[in-house]
Amino acid sequence: MSGRRTLTALLITLLTIAACSSSTGPGAQGPPWIPPDSAYKVVENLEYAWCTQDIELVATSLDDAFEHRLLEEDWDDYNGDGIIDTYWDKYLELEFTEGTFNAADSIYMDISGTSEWPWSEDSSGQSLELQRSVYLEVHYPDTVGISSEAVVFICRPNQDGTWFIWLWIDQLEVLDENVCRTTPTGHPPASAGLQLFHGS
Ligand SMILES: [Ca+2]
Question: What's the CA-to-centroid distance between 73 and ligand 1, angstroms?
Fold first, then answer.
């Protein structure tokens, strides 16, 4: 049993290293990009922040006007004002993310995709639209939450040329499940998208 646990821990470690160094090689630069001077770099920083459970890096990656726009099936009252929300803001994103970081033993996130073009809904031409696939594995003490979804990140720079994630737009839930549950009082099963992680 302990041997199996050791192997599992080793695999998780290797996966995490692979994800967090996916764009690096010997002597190459890689995330965290400080400061991120390109849109793709701030998205790589987000992935790195999740893999290393670095809430400060998540915070500095998000624009102050950040919105996490939800699939209609995930609309709910997240801030408790009695009104159904179609998105949540930076404050709630950080609160949910930190809760996940604190509860998890380890996290593996892989954000893949390379597309990048001006966002058609921003007439200033400043912001870029990056389509990505986000795979997320959160290893809790007694369960593992897995999610895979298509996401559009809208990124924009400040006056100094530092990029931020302005909008996180959920596009499609490909996979969402809880596996390896061993106790009935563990974390709640997945309900929808990243809520699994945000809500635990
Ligand atoms: Ca609300």
Answer: 15
